[in-house]
Model the fold of this input.
Amino acid sequence: MQISKKLNRRVFLAGISAAVAATAMPSAGFALTKAAAEKLINNLSSDIFKIINSGKSETAMYRDFDRVFAKYAAVDAIARTCLGPPWRSANASQKKAYTAAFRAYISRKYGKRFREFIGSKITVTSAKAVKSGVLVKSVVKFKGSAPFTVDWQVFERNGKRQMFDLYIEGISMIKTEREEIGSMLDRSGGKIDKLVARLNKAG
Done:
């Protein structure tokens, strides 16, 4: 019975996740140009490389990644999209706690991934307009190893340009984290407070 309930819940979430994502993600404004999106990603990647080459401790780096994430990314929209339908039933206090925990979790998790880029070089290669904004393509090159792609989805909301999604070798951060958060929520019995506790230990 418990397994059946979980399966039904996951099927339900999967069935409406696209609609939730569309609601959470603001539409792109006409003011957002490919050049502006490229500039944002150049600045973002520059800040990331300053952190990973700073020689700081992991803990200090994760704090710096958290500040960069808050500066350049649409944190609230990303957190809301990754949680999906349960966001609607959460109270204001739970939403605030979840968003803070999610932001710290993402900073730790992707901070660890970006630390793998030490000694590499990232180059923005192109940008193209997409339905939800601009997709900026970049290549990460290491000496003695094959390059790989990192793409960045950028939109503009209320005059502010922000990164909404990140694709490492074609794998979407939003899609990955939506599945991960859904799994954590299942293990938390569908309780937002327990999910927040899990997020504070994860990453």
Notes: The chain has a mean pLDDT of 84. The first helix runs from residue 2 to 24. The two ends are 31 Å apart (CA to CA). The chain has eight helices and five strands.
